[in-house]
Amino acid sequence: MTETLAAKGFPVVLAGPSGSGKTTVARALAEDGGRFRFSVSATTRRPREGERDGRDYVFLDREAFLGRRDRGELLEWARVHGEWYGTPRDQLERAREEGVHLLLDIDVQGARSVRRLEPDAVTIFLLPPSGVRVVQRLADRGSEGREERRRRLETATGELDAVAEFDFVIVNDVLERAVAQASAVVTGEELRIRRMGERVSSRAAELEEEIRGALAHGTPAGSGPDGPEARTEEEES
Prior knowledge:
By secondary structure, this protein is α/β, with parallel strands linked by helices. The chain has helices at residues 2-5, 22-30, 62-70, 89-98, 108-117, 131-141, 146-159, 175-190, 193-196, 198-216, 233-236, and strands spanning 12-15, 36-38, 42-43, 58-59, 74-80, 83-88, 101-105, 122-127, 168-171. The chain is 46% helix and 16% strand.
């Protein structure tokens, strides 16, 4: 019954400051290809070492990005650290058609836009376990210079103030645990009655009809306490 009623196809937002590990968590969730799909954001920033166009990001120049924005092809967009980032709208449309959850690895500004435009979105804020861990993660990444890291850390202090705006919060200390908690959050949301729409009412009506039909034809014998195997205290004595 759960498999047929569980809601499918709503966006799941993973947000948090730089160094919170949101991309890693999103990628791990997306390994379950039958349930989640990772949203490939468009950006004007230059690729980092090892990143591939179309897999990690859709890399665009500024003119192409703003053209997509102006044509309404982006679900959300924001300028972060001097570069533009956005979510192609067609990715969400395809995910809904196929009944999978689109994972949006975006910043706080983008999360606000998605919440405004897609009220059914589930928003999860990833907290780093410590400030020291954030600094270390950015340093280990090695993709930004000292000034860029400083700018990201300064932005992170403001993004942390937005945690109360989100539906759920997860401390990303141990990756496996954070991924399991995020998956559990989505499972709970799939089972919300308001997300199931008329399916749950229809199923309840079907069950009611089946039970009334059984009553109309006489309750079938069984092995429960009211069936032929049930014994009174006097019979057992």
